[in-house]
């Protein structure tokens, strides 16, 4: 095994790693696509760490985004910028208020991102072999992102999720309930004392359907979001890191660009999802809607009635500010751990060095 490294770029030379038959393994000389004999554990471990750090670091901004997407917010919860919102929330509601709902988000972040990245890497490699004879294919990247999204949303049903679409969708609906609870607890003057109180109250007063009221909107948003996200990331990597070495700067810049573009494009769907999740009583009552709002089509009509075209882009600043560092963190941490774990695996397989 040969390992070359400098402070900025590190490359794993895999041509020296032999398979069981003594021949070079597939994926020779290509860090981004791990050798065929490498376990998916590497992708899953790196993805889990990336997901946990991403959601932990950026959660306060996500809380601000939820509030800024409110169509008729309380006068005390109207903010002109992300910084002003965070400052006022901390000053008037306490230091930990922007972290409310983080606990339930963390329950799903690790396993969801483990499945997400592992699925993406596997499907991307498989489709690229078919479409581009092993080369980088934007179509393969986009399709892999879509498949990874469905499995990511189905993380609560891990036993069956990888094997059929129906369990994936069912599991995704369960995971979507986590997002509903999170956003209810993020809202201004949220009436829920804690996680269990929120779950119990929603189930008792609105029924189980409340936990997946915006699930169709969530899928409709996540699929194009992730397709654009992965295609943008891979396109940026082609430009900034054509040899696909471990290059921290390129991973950060590519991740930030991918997050910004995909977040801006899908903001209208995110606004509709937030309305369906939070069921803003003041906003719905102002246009004489009683009961609970359901369905993506109804959400689109309601958002337009409440604020016109501009309403579909409420919170776009907070959404982009959240997604840029969020995806930069996710990709840079993922690529770092993938590099380190691959290096360790190669060293174990190479065995101890012989006598000099």
Topology:
Layout: E1 2-5, E2 10-13, H1 40-68, H2 82-93, H3 102-132, H4 138-153, H5 165-186, H6 195-206, H7 215-240, H8 248-265, H9 267-278, H10 281-286, H11 296-307, H12 316-350
Antiparallel strand pairs: 1-2
Describe the structure concisely for a colleague:
By secondary structure, the chain is an all-alpha fold. The chain is built from 12 helices and 2 strands, in the order E-E-H-H-H-H-H-H-H-H-H-H-H-H.
Q: Can you describe this structure?
A:
The protein is built from twelve helices and two strands; from the N terminus they run ββαααααααααααα. The chain is mainly alpha-helical and 356 residues long. Strands 1-2 form a two-stranded antiparallel ribbon. It starts with a strand and ends in a 6-residue tail after the last helix. The relative contact order is 0.14. Mean pLDDT is 76; it is low at 1-9, 13-37 and 155-174. Mitochondrial iron transporter that specifically mediates iron uptake in developing erythroid cells, thereby playing an essential role in heme biosynthesis. Belongs to the mitochondrial carrier (TC 2.A.29) family.
Proportion of beta-strand residues: under 5%
Could you tell me the mean pLDDT? Answer: 76
- Secondary-structure class: mainly alpha
Q: Give me the side-by-side strand order of the main sheet.
A: 1-2
Distance between the termini: 15 Å
Shape assignment: globular
Report on the biggest sheet: 2 strands, antiparallel
Helix content: 55-70%
**Care to count the β-strands?**
2
Contiguous runs where pLDDT drops below 50 for at least 5 residues:
1-9, 13-37, 155-174
Order of helices and strands: EEHHHHHHHHHHHH
How many H/I helices? 12
Q: What oligomeric state do these chains adopt?
A: single chain
Rg, rounded, reads 22 Å
Pfam families: Mito_carr
Organism: Salvelinus namaycush
GO cellular component, one term: mitochondrial inner membrane
Function: Mitochondrial iron transporter that specifically mediates iron uptake in developing erythroid cells, thereby playing an essential role in heme biosynthesis.
């Amino acid at each position: 095994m040969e390992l070359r490294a400098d402070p900025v770029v590190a490359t794993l030379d895999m041509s020296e790693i032999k398979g069981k038959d003594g021949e070079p393994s597939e994926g020779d000389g290509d860090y981004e696509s791990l050798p065929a004999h490498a376990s998916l554990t590497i992708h899953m471990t790196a993805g889990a760490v990336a997901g946990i750090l991403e959601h932990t670091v950026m959660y306060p901004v996500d809380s601000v985004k939820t509030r800024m997407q409110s169509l008729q917010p309380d006068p005390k919860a109207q903010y002109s910028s992300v910084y002003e919102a965070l400052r006022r929330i901390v000053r008037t509601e306490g230091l930990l208020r922007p972290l409310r709902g983080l606990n339930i988000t963390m329950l799903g972040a690790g396993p969801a991102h483990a499945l997400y990245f592992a699925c993406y890497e596997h499907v991307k490699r498989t489709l690229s072999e078919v479409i581009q004879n092993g080369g980088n294919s934007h179509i393969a990247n986009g399709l892999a992102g879509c498949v990874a999204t469905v499995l990511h949303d189905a993380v609560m049903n891990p036993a069956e999720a990888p094997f059929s679409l129906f369990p994936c969708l069912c599991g995704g609906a369960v995971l979507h309930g986590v997002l509903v609870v999170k956003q209810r607890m993020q809202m201004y003057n949220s009436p829920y004392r804690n996680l269990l109180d929120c779950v119990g109250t929603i189930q008792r007063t609105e029924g189980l359907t409340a936990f997946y009221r915006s699930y169709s909107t969530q899928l409709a948003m996540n699929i194009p979001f992730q397709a654009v996200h992965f295609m943008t990331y891979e396109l940026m990597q082609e430009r900034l890191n054509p040899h696909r070495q471990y290059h921290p700067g390129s991973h950060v810049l590519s991740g930030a660009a991918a997050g910004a573009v995909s977040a801006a494009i899908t903001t209208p769907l995110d606004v509709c999802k937030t309305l369906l999740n939070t069921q803003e009583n003041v906003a719905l009552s102002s246009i004489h809607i009683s009961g609970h709002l359901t369905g993506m089509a109804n959400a689109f009509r309601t958002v337009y009635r409440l604020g016109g075209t501009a309403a579909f882009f409420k919170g776009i600043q907070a959404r982009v500010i959240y997604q840029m560092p969020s995806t930069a963190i996710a990709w840079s941490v993922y690529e770092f751990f993938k590099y380190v774990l691959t290096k360790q695996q190669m060293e174990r397989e190479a065995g101890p060095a012989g006598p000099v």
